[in-house]
C-alpha cells in the first residue's frame, strides 16, 4: 500500500484476491508493517495454501499466519496486539465469501444458509466481536498514533470486498442468492459506518471487478489508499468509481 506503513488483519488469505492482496501488500515499494493472515489449513497441499506458506517464509518479519479454528478469536487478537504494539491495527479486510448461483427454486436451504453465514454473519461476527474485545483498542490506538484528524487507511479502517451484483440495480441481470447475501454485507457496512463514525473508523465496500486477481488487487489497494472521511460508507469498484446501491 502506498500509504503510511500500516498493520493489516486479513481473515481470508489463502486464495484468490485474499492471497494476492497479501502478496502485493508485502512486496510493493511501500510494504505494510505487519500482516496477520488467517487460514484454516496451512499444512494443506493446495496451491493457494502453498502460496501463503511461501510468502510467510519469504517475509517472516511481516507476515504472521494463524490457523482459524486452532485459536480463539481472542487469542488471535492478543497475538496481533503483541505484533503491532502501540501503533495499533489499521486495516481489517473482510474478504471471505462464497458463491451461490442457483435460483429460489434450485437452491437448497442449506446452500442459502451457507451463503448468508459466510457473506454476512462471518464479517459481522469478526467485526462485532473484535470491536467488543481487543480490536477496538488496537484500532483506536492506530487512530491516536496517526496524529492527524480525519479518516484514512493509515488510521483505522474496515474494508469489505463485495460485488457489483450486490447492487439492487443489477437484480434483473443476476437473480440468485449470492446477490442477496452480498447486499446484506453492504447494508452491514452502512450500519457500522454510522455506529463508529464518532470513533473515526472508516468503512468501505469495494467491488473487485471481473478481471485477473493481480490487476484487481492493484486497483483495490490504490482505492484504499485514496479513501478519506468523505468516502466512508461508500460502495466503489477497483477503479474508484461509485457503484449504485
Automatic annotation (TrEMBL):
<dbReference type="GO" id="GO:0016491">
    <property type="term" value="F:oxidoreductase activity"/>
</dbReference>
<dbReference type="InterPro" id="IPR036291">
    <property type="entry name" value="NAD(P)-bd_dom_sf"/>
</dbReference>
<dbReference type="GO" id="GO:0005737">
    <property type="term" value="C:cytoplasm"/>
</dbReference>
<dbReference type="Pfam" id="PF00106">
    <property type="entry name" value="adh_short"/>
</dbReference>
<protein>
    <recommendedName>
        <fullName>C-factor</fullName>
    </recommendedName>
</protein>
<dbReference type="InterPro" id="IPR051468">
    <property type="entry name" value="Fungal_SecMetab_SDRs"/>
</dbReference>
<dbReference type="InterPro" id="IPR002347">
    <property type="entry name" value="SDR_fam"/>
</dbReference>
Amino acid at each position: 500500500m502506498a500509504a503510511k506503513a500500516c498493520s493489516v488483519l486479513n481473515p481470508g488469505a489463502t486464495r484468490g484476491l485474499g492471497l494476492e492482496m497479501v502478496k502485493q501488500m508485502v512486496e510493493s515499494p511501500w510494504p505494510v508493517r505487519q500482516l496477520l493472515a488467517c487460514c484454516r489449513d496451512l499444512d494443506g497441499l493446495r496451491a493457494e495454501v502453498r502460496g501463503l506458506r511461501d510468502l510467510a517464509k519469504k517475509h517472516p518479519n511481516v507476515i504472521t499466519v494463524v490457523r482459524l479454528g486452532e485459536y480463539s478469536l481472542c487469542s488471535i487478537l492478543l497475538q496481533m496486539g503483541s505484533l503491532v504494539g502501540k501503533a495499533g491495527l489499521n486495516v481489517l479486510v473482510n474478504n471471505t465469501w462464497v458463491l451461490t448461483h442457483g435460483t429460489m427454486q434450485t437452491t437448497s436451504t442449506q446452500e442459502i444458509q451457507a451463503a448468508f453465514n459466510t457473506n454476512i454473519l462471518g464479517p459481522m461476527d469478526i467485526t462485532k466481536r473484535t470491536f467488543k474485545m481487543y480490536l477496538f483498542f488496537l484500532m483506536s490506538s492506530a487512530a491516536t498514533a496517526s496524529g492527524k484528524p480525519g479518516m484514512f487507511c493509515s488510521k483505522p479502517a474496515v474494508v469489505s470486498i463485495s460485488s457489483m451484483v450486490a447492487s439492487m440495480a443489477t437484480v434483473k441481470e443476476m437473480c440468485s442468492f449470492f446477490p442477496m447475501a452480498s447486499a446484506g454485507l453492504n447494508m452491514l457496512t452502512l450500519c457500522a459506518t454510522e455506529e463508529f463514525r464518532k470513533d473515526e473508523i472508516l468503512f468501505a465496500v469495494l467491488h473487485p471487478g471481473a478481471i485477473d486477481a493481480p490487476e484487481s488487487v492493484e486497483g483495490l489497494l490504490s482505492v484504499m489508499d485514496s479513501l478519506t472521511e468523505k468516502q466512508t460508507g461508500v460502495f466503489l469498484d477497483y477503479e474508484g468509481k461509485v457503484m449504485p446501491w
